[in-house]
Amino acid sequence: MPIPPEIERLLKQREDLRKEKKYSEADEVRKQIESLGYVIKDSVEGTVVSKKETIPLNKEVRKLIGVFGSGELSPTGRRVHEYLISHLKAPVKIALIETPAGFEVNPLNWYQKLSDMMSIGLQNFQPQISIIDALRKDGEKSTNNPTLLAPMLDADYIHAGAGSPSYAGTHLADSLAYQYMIDMFDRGSVLSFASAAAIAFSKYLLPVYEMYKVGEDLHWNKGTNFFAKWGLNLTIIPHWNNNEGGQGIDTSRCFMGVERFKKLLQMLPEPTPILGIDEQTACIFDLEKKEVKVMGNGTATVMDSISMKATLLRSPSSFSFEEFKL
Questions:
Q1: Nearest-10 crossing angle of helices 176-186, 23-35
Q2: What is the DSSP secondary-structure string of 163-182?
Q3: How far is 120 from 78, CA to CA, in rounded Å?
Q4: Which domains does the chain have, with CATH numbers?
Q5: Closest of 229, 274, 269 to residue 256, by C-alpha
Q6: Nearest to residue 145, comparing CAs of 154, 135, 160?
Q7: What would the pLDDT profile of 56-110 be if each residue is shown by its tens digit?
Q8: What backbone torsions phi and psi does residue 295 show, to the nearest 5 degrees?
Q9: pLDDT tens-digit profile of 274-301?
């Protein structure tokens, strides 16, 4: 069936915007095309547009996003991954985004371990795993390289996790990889974020390494505010109950400690709900039900950044998005 001239015009407009790396504007054009009854599928070979009714639904659509406090490689984490993909038919295609660790000597290390765990722990789903080595915004392994990112466009499940929050925020914000995550979620893929990626996708980004390792003064950076699309301007703090410092050093609140974190709350540019997630614990956001399920060994803490009033939610339990209202 021939494509109407208006759709052809919009497709060209979208392609021109993508060449200029104006991905947000290009996504608005995509939404306009879809509102006219068409579906766009990008691949290495190019872009294919079809009438919506011609696209077979191969999976049940559930709007799920998993956020790990830590432990995505652990037996607890395996159960969370399994829960997130339990509605999908085998084989399940999984894309692991390596960007948060792109600054490291061997960025593949952590994500290869995660891939190995999934291959064994999720074998009932016949996982087909791609590790996307998009390491930074520029260069050959760029988060803007459509050829490198192509496996994301077939993925049923996309995960980004370990690394540096600041680095992840810098090299994923406004990138094609970030836009692909949003696009694929809109089309029914499941997402999950852990540790560094969870912080980077917050409203305000906690620059952990800069303060805890380098010794910079307390401050916040701007995050990508991923959840704002659904009215959730969350600031996420994983490793909430970390105790690596033992009795001598308070490393809770993602290595900041309680007292320093109180000072950080007073330095926020504007109010934001704080979501603290314990280690070996995850929060599952169900965007259709507008609720969050706590899974794992610990608790989730929802805190008002102004009053510092906190609500503790134990696993297993669920709570409404209303808990995030200030």
A1: 20
A2: S-HHHHHHHHTTSHHHHHHH
A3: 10
A4: 5-54 (no CATH), 64-324 (3.40.50.880)
A5: 274
A6: 135
A7: 444 567 899 999 999 999 999 999 999 999 999 999 999 999 999 999 999 999 9
A8: -130, 150
A9: 999 999 999 999 999 999 999 999 999 9
